[in-house]
Design brief:
membrane, transport, mainly alpha, transmembrane helix
């Protein structure tokens, strides 16, 4: 299992570096890495993260299509922002989904850290959708996910994944700064 976790970690690092650089090739690495992580998280009884990986495969296919269309139209990946009202709506949705999913995981499964795991999963869902839509706020959500995930994965003894999320935190900060420089005015 350790070698699969290391392989998935390396694929995800490549994915996020390519996202930060606004390269469409990030999606190939994302799909492979998330598929492998689905199994790793299932074995660790992190069921929300397991389901999240399936969602990631699907939304990465969607994102690949969206970015391909955007590049064909604009010649590059164009970065935009959400309105204040939209940001509030996304935050409310994340909080509601976290509470609902965490409650289900707590009551119906033997999940470890069901509410923390649900929070990581629901925030990741929102971040990935916003990434696919080329919204700057995806990076803020990824930074939050990375900070919480570092603690969770360390508590579960998933050390390659903990190290991965430390690296992802640094890359997410870099991605936020880089996307800010390139956003549509």
């Amino acid at each position: 299992m350790f070698s699969l976790e290391v392989l998935a970690s390396l694929l995800i690092v490549a994915n996020v570096v390519l996202v930060a650089r606004r390269s469409i090739w990030n999606y190939a690495f994302a799909i492979a890495g998330t598929a492998i992580y689905g199994w790793v998280f299932f074995e660790a009884r992190l069921y929300s993260d397991t389901g999240l990986q399936l969602f990631f495969v699907i939304v990465n296919l969607y994102g690949w299509r969206q970015w391909s269309h955007g590049i064909a139209t604009a010649g590059e990946v164009r970065v935009g922002r959400l309105s204040a009202a939209a940001r509030g709506g996304w935050l409310f949705g994340i909080a509601f989904a976290t509470l609902a999913w965490g409650t289900l995981m707590h009551r119906l499964t033997d999940a470890s850290f069901p509410f923390v795991d649900a929070g990581i999963a629901m925030t990741s869902v929102a971040a990935q959708i916003l990434l696919s839509r080329q919204k700057l706020e995806n990076w803020v959500l990824w930074i939050a996910v990375d900070i919480v995930a570092i603690g969770l994965y360390a508590a579960k003894g998933l050390w390659p994944t903990t190290i991965l999320y430390i690296l992802l935190l640094a890359i997410s900060v870099w991605g936020l700064l880089d996307w800010r420089r390139s956003e549509v005015q």
